[in-house]
Automatic annotation (TrEMBL), chain A:
Keywords: Nitrogen fixation. This protein may play a role in the biosynthesis of the prosthetic group of nitrogenase (FeMo cofactor). This is Nitrogenase iron-molybdenum cofactor biosynthesis protein NifE. InterPro entries: Nase/OxRdtase_comp1, Nase_comp1_CS, NifE, NifE-like. Pathway: Cofactor biosynthesis; Fe-Mo cofactor biosynthesis. The keyword Ribonucleoprotein does not apply.
UniProtKB/TrEMBL annotation, chain B:
This is Nitrogenase iron-molybdenum cofactor biosynthesis protein NifN. Belongs to the NifD/NifK/NifE/NifN family. One of its GO terms (molecular function) is oxidoreductase activity. InterPro entries: ChlB/BchB/BchZ, Nase/OxRdtase_comp1, Nase_Mo-Fe_CF. Pathway: Cofactor biosynthesis; Fe-Mo cofactor biosynthesis. This protein may play a role in the biosynthesis of the prosthetic group of nitrogenase (FeMo cofactor). NCBIfam families: nifN. Residues 21-426 form the Nitrogenase/oxidoreductase component domain. The gene is nifN. GO terms for biological process: nitrogen fixation; protein-containing complex assembly. PANTHER family: LIGHT-INDEPENDENT PROTOCHLOROPHYLLIDE REDUCTASE SUBUNIT B (PTHR33712:SF7).
Amino acid sequence: MEPIRKDELDAHACGSLSPKTKPCPRPKPGEAAGGCSFDGAQITLLPIMDAAHLVHGPIACAGNSWESRGTLSSGPSLSQYGFTTDLNDTGIIFGGEKKLKESIDYIAGRFAPPAIFVYSTCVTALIGEDMDAVCKEAAGRLGLPVIPVNSPGFVGSKNLGNRLAGEALLQYVIGTGEPESGIPLGVNLLGEYNIAGELWDIEKLMNSAGITLMSRITGDARYKEITWAHRAKVNMVVCSRALLGLAKEMESRYGIPYFEGSFYGAKETTYSLRQMAFLLNDREMERCVDRLTEREESRLLQELRPYRKLLKGKKAVLYTGGVKSWSVISALKELGVQVVGVGTNKSTEDDVRRIAGRVGDDTEYIPDGGASRIIKTVRDRKADLMIAGGRNMYVAMKEQIPFVDINQERHRAYAGYEGLLRLAKELTYALANPIWKLAASPPPWDQEVPHDR
Amino acid sequence: MTVNHRMKPAAVNPIKTGPSLGAVLALQGCYRAMPIIHGSKGCSAFSKALLTRHFREPIAVQTSALQEMDVIFDANRNLEEALDLVLSKHRPDIIGIIGTELTDVAGVDYRAMLKTYKRERNVRGSLAFSVTLPDFRGSLESGFSSAVEAMIDEMIQMAGHKGARHVNNRQITLLPASFLTPGDVMELKEIIASFGFEVIAVPDISTSLSGHLLTGFSPLTRGGVRLDSMLQSLQSGLTIAVGGSMERPARRLHNALGTPYKVFQGAMGLKAADELLHFLHQISGEPVPLRYCWQRENLLDCMLDAHFQFAGMSAIAALEPDHLFSVSGWLEELGVEQQALVTSCETPVVAGMEQEVWVGDLDDAEYFGKGADLWISSSHGITAARRIQAAFLPAGFPVWNELGAHMAASVGYRGAMEWTNKAGNLLMRREAERRESSVRNR
């Protein structure tokens, strides 16, 4: 992966902490897709599994969204509880601060979490609830971190919400704790949320290479480990640029170098592991990584052979909602799948540049326009399958297009060497299923068969 | 009898979903429709994602994508933009503007705006209405019925100019409540039609969300009741509402057009099915079709076979009000003890129930349900059911852990039989597992 120049980063608007040079584009009414900033903040923070996450607002924000993500936990599951102040008419008219305070007390008393994250929503922001003050008072009284997350839906996009969540971590969490002595200092993963257990695969790889995973920000995380993230020696920003601002700020505050990488595809995985060892400045570890990646890559090459044969020359349209597009392209290329169309609706200019470096000249960019536009590309380019998020899955089904789910609701882990093999299998299964032929043929009574009578 | 609230400041694992989601669901049952949620992007994105997950179908919905500054300055400019785009690009037959807590708190008057818009742009030939559904009032069920009510109002307005009514006594308008699955609506339509009536369901999710490949993907709804059928339904001689929440829309038809109506509060179990078929038999003068006589026999026999399984069992149900009423009636017939009934909101239906009902969340259900054998709720209840070691029967909304849940029927004799067998099987399996583990641990 090509390094990114510093000035490019500063010019980048939606994903950095620095003041915006260019505002995020306004969503188009009547054609907007994707979640809001509240959604984004929850995506980033809900994987802190042992914390309580309390939504301050009327029912829909929590009621329509809790338990909707594929992020997995290896232990505590308090973050899977749906907590909300569930404001009603009176709460809106007379203010919900009292209810919020009581809710925080209730959760602290009954569940004794290590921390409570409190999310503002459109309405509570609009009626001017002073959430920060309530949280501060409660934190002091209860002796427990109570963290306000000011990312109401109407401030902007999902990416902005990711970023605001990163800011909350920086302001209230990171730097408030110290790791147990004796633990070797290692690498933080930023923006890896353990969808379908991907983080566990990555952690296994890092362990085999002798690299310590310090803080998971935030896949399958415990609150405590994030408090000492500032002691890490390296930050890796995984795929999403939304937490890039956090990495930058940690670099300037704590002097932690960072790099951007991905674990989709063998090449990217190898690069990421090498980069970790390089930045940790440990010769022995670098050799260890080299041995590991060589071994894994050659094993994978063997195992992939039958699938490569089946996938070679197949054409895919990729629509991931932006952040993962370039990294998944690399993985698909390694499998011999040609990406003939790629969604860039949420990609930044930098993402687009990276996409351009990875696909052929004749690949079509799908800037916006929703599902109809994706289907048009599939038809125009005679693509064999569609790779997208769960929201577009049934769009593909109705058009009878083989489909592989790549976003947060999925149940398969595609990271690392094992993940690439899994992706290859998933792609071949999708293409080979008998349903495509069955669905394409009309019932016998509709088939025009000349019969003699 | 009594409706109770457990004193608790926060909702823990809510049963409730937003009422705006209910309105989006209602519009999925109309052909070539597009709901536009007048609110933040997330309001529509969450509804869309959750409905998609439950029905395993694409869901038509759009948003006015309000941002902070839009709310402060002019939220209706966004709505106008959204309307322009949706009308010019997709040409929907039906548009529902769904106001949210955001527009309600900010005091946005989109009703007047829509009126002006319709006059100025000459939106003739399509039905456009608005409904106010702030999320701090009501739940999915009330949002659904309010949307249907607003839709009916607009239908009456639209048809009003066309002159006299020709009442067709062989035609019945069916108003199915939000908890009825596409499979249920299909079953109800078949039952009513089998007595020689023409049935128009408003809305009709049985031909949209049931799943079909008749058309490819469309940004609009891919099935449901057509606008001309909806307008034709105003000529019906009778309205049948299934679910207490649909009484208001039925009454609206009665008040405006004089159409008599009949409300069936419960839809599940032997008695409820008997009541429906007996009524249809009486008004049509037709004999009850043979297949339903057979199904009744089958159900009774099935209940006899299963009654050993249900003996001494207790259940906890956490569902939306109308659904809870139906399920409670069915449990009663099985002789299952109803350890606790929990619902999302207080409505006249639950207030009139014989049993004690709690307005609360899944956490309350877990509290009251300790020791219960059977847990009935949406998929959100899986973990809680596991914690109290009850067999988990998914029902209501959303259900994501089971294929075909949206097509399973609970109404009629056949529906009651399906549910009885399903619940009985779950209890049987649980008993077998318990026996095994007690043998192992001896």
